[in-house]
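#struct-help
A.M.: can someone run this one for me? Single chain, 313 residues.
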Amino acid sequence: MIQEPWLSVIVPTYNGSKYLAAALDSILMQQDPELECVVIDDGSTDNTLDIVESFKDKLNIKLITKARQGNWVVNTNHALSVARGKYACFLHQDDLWLQGRLNAIKKAIATYPQASLYLHDSIFIDREGKPLGLWQCPLKDSQVVSAQEMILKLVIQNFIAIPSPVFNRQAALDLGGLNNELWYTADWDFWLKLASAGETYHISQPLAAFRVHGDSQTIRRSSSVAEFRQQMRSVVDKYLQSQSASQVAKVAFFSTEVNTTLAAMVHGESTQLFKLATDFVLLGPLGWRRYWQDSRIQERVSARLKAKLQTQT
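D.P.: on it. Structure tokens below:
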């Protein structure tokens, strides 16, 4: 066992037989023996635990098994608290790292050790791992981004893929970790919390892959579109309290309505497309530009449409 791993990779699992081996392989591909993987399983009933065991002679794995409770946020917080690395990151069982990710992160930390958050661009992939498009952070080619700039952009839409960020583990725990009450927006709230604490270092290179598929735990967990909207609105309210940017607030609340409409479509519920179109018109040219740039709507929708078309062919 490594005495002091520089990085703890938190991997929450539940019935991950389809994709987990590929996720763990993508960690192994980095060829970094000085990290630990904290795998926390939520009562899997398939061969997830066998897959984890098969990697124990290749990776430094700490396995935690729990009875099924259906809350990846609670499990992630627990894993974060028992991890030992100075830095931490999340890798969900259906996502991947790309070649060279950890080398780029190490270089970023050495270059700018005072950052609160290190992140990079990502790509979308389908069930088979085929690329569906780029998922960029709307930060241009900036490397160091101020807390205020990050909040004003990130509050409009969560443009950060789960497998992208790396952060100081103790600092994250001191900030309270993820909010256990949020099943949909916990990661968004968490990134905003970290971004608010200091500067963000951005690597404008895709170094992870986010898988688009219908079995996503987030999609399955949603109990109602109304709750979906409420969780998003609560995050916007929280992080715009100290901001005086009314235009940003309008765009952020419009963005929550777009996301709610998309969620309603997924669940076969009624939508208010006319009202949404009216709200968009009322944003005006500056609002249109800010929404288009910061929401990454074109990338998110395009990837999901491609994934859906591929499943129908």
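A.M.: thanks! The first helix runs from residue 20 to 28.
D.P.: also worth noting: Residues 219-312 form one domain.
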